[in-house]
Fold this protein.
Amino acid sequence: MGKPQGDGSNQSALKRMRASLQTAGVLAGSQPRKGSKKYQKRLAKLARENPEQLVRNAKERHEKLDAISTLYNPFDIKTNKPLKVKAVGRKVKGVRGAPTLSKQVGLENRKKTLLVEWQNRHRSGGLIDRRFGENNPHLTPEEKMMERFARERE
C-alpha cells in the first residue's frame, strides 16, 4: 500500500491524519468531553436556543470527516512494482493507480451509454412525422396547410 503523498514529510499516515483532523476542528481532543456536566449544559442550552445550529454543526462535522477519510484511505491507492533498471530522466507511467476512482468513472460512463440502450431494449419501430412544418413551432396551422397544399399541387 502507498501513503498519500500530499506534503512529502516523513510523518506516519496516522500523524498526518491526526494533524488534518485538528486543523479541521473535528478531533475529540479539541472539544470538551461529552460526559462532562459542563458540556451537557452547553449542549442543552444550544438545543433550546437554536436547534438548527446544532444540526448544521453535526452535518458540517460529518462532511469534514468524510472529506478527510477519503484522503487517507489506503485502498484508494494502488502502487505498482517499480522498474528493475532506473534511467535518469525517464518518466515512468502508471506507478500509482486509483482503482476506486477509475471504477467510479467507468460506472458513470456505462450509465450514460448502456442505461439508455437498456431502457429502450423492447421498443421497436415508431412513427416519424415527415409532414411539412410539423416540427416547426413558428408556423401557424394555416401556413402549414397552405404549404402542404402547394406541395401537393406540384
Summary: The two ends are 77 Å apart (CA to CA).
